[in-house]
Write a structure and sequence with these properties.
six-stranded mixed beta sheet; 12 strands; about 25% strand; 8 helices; globular; alpha/beta
Length: about 325
């Protein structure tokens, strides 16, 4: 497979070099070449940090921006950044009001963030963290703490970022982020697997005419294989799983995101969104905000993730607050 890379073993370095050239509002930390931060941080504000493996762009570095995140720890492809990278991201983000680290619930990230928090506290930097657990395929409803964080993390970053920009203190920012996590569910469906550049071939195959339901963001097999017939049928399966997990007692006001997973043609998430919206509306729910595009990807996987958040008035207000993810197109 041909790829637009220079050296498969140095794709992250080349990614970061190109990224800061394209987005001068951000800068690579002088402390650590794997930390991306706002070039002009806001004094006195709670700092927001995320981090994780590369290959999910625009996540994670793309959400560093005004009203969102202040720094991101950047790992190798699908690999957690080491503890020292997270620590240096905390230092870059700290403006005297403490730091909130908002990340996905993966074993390596959990271990390295906790080590970095200890390092920061030794230096007098207060860091608290929240882990996203929106991937309902990664653990059952009675074991939510084991679920991974995937594309639904967008809502956590955006809403918590807005709270911090308004001047909320660290405890409030963390509480808002946790509220978002508790109200968000996601599910992915894959039609074709991904290929890691340094490997050069997929780790498994998806038989034509089938789809992997609950496929992982690192190219893991889904929780089950279903016959693929249409976008509408795939959307129905996703919505059924999401609503079953939410177990709403009545109509809700929802925000819905459909993200392509990297190789999905731009038209197809819109087709899926239309079917998802129709399914949710048929169940009596109102979609008050919608997001369609590539928000969290998985290299060149062909598939979509659907994320749904149950909004109250305050979370809706914060979701609509000004903010700019530098790595997302704005034109």
């Amino acid at each position: 497979m041909q790829r637009f890379v220079n050296d498969p073993d140095h794709v992250v370095e080349d990614l970061l070099a190109g990224y800061v050239k394209a987005h001068p509002e951000t800068a690579i930390s002088t402390r650590n070449p794997r930390v991306l931060a706002l070039a002009d941080p806001v004094p006195g504000k709670v700092g927001l940090v995320t981090g994780g493996g590369s290959g999910h762009e625009p996540a994670f570095l793309g959400y560093v921006g005004p009203g969102l995140l202040d720094a991101a720890a950047v790992g190798e492809v699908f690999a957690s950044p080491p503890a020292k990278v997270f620590y240096d991201a905390f230092v870059e983000a700290d403006q005297g009001a403490g730091v909130a680290c908002l990340f996905g619930n993966y074993a390596g990230d959990n271990m390295n963030v906790k080590m970095a928090v200890d390092m920061a506290e030794d230096d007098g930097i207060v860091v608290k963290y929240v882990v996203a657990t929106d991937d309902l395929a990664s653990a059952p409803a009675d074991a939510v703490s084991r679920r991974h964080g995937i594309a639904g993390g967008f809502f956590m970053w955006k809403i918590a970022g807005a709270a911090a920009a308004e001047g909320a203190d660290l405890d409030r920012v963390v509480a808002v982020a946790q509220d978002v996590v508790d109200r968000t569910r996601s599910l992915c469906v894959g039609l074709e697997p991904l290929t890691i550049p340094a490997v050069g071939q997929p780790g498994f195959s998806i038989t034509p005419g089938t789809m992997e339901v609950g496929i992982g963001h690192h190219g893991e097999n889904g929780i089950r294989t279903e016959t693929y017939t249409s976008a509408a049928d795939a959307a129905a399966i996703i919505v059924e799983a999401v609503l079953q997990d939410f177990a709403f007692s009545g109509p809700r006001r929802l925000a819905v995101m459909v993200s392509g997973l990297g190789a999905t043609p731009a038209m197809e998430p819109y087709i899926v969104y239309g079917a998802v919206a129709s399914e949710l509306e048929a169940h009596g729910h109102a979609i008050v905000e919608s997001y369609v595009g590539d928000f969290v990807t998985s290299l060149d996987m062909n598939g979509v993730s659907v994320s749904v958040i149950d909004l109250d008035e305050n979370l809706h207000r914060l979701l609509k607050a000004p903010g700019r993810a530098v790595g997302l197109p704005t034109y």
